[in-house]
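re: ur question from earlier - yeah i can do the single chain one, its not a big deal. heres the input i used so u can compare w yours
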Amino acid sequence: MILETDGSLFSVERIPEEIKLDQNIQLMDMTVSGRGTFSQGEVTVRILPSGWIEATTIHLRGADNQTLTVVVNPLTGHCETYDGYREF
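and the output i got, formated as tokens:
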């Protein structure tokens, strides 16, 4: 669903570009501020027309068990990456 600036919602049939992780990279879990941590299933992160996105932390693990933390800034959408498993 997409929220327009006038408050109306409309459905998106499919994401224009699909991005897949390398087969050696595993999604460990994902934390969405105010909603909790998810390690399975489908998770939707809301992005508002103003550009605001829900604060999100994503943890990835490589084939060598090395972990990486990706943090999405809710105001800018900019992502920062950190070595290791970090909680914010």
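The chain has no helices and seven strands. not sure if urs matches, ping me
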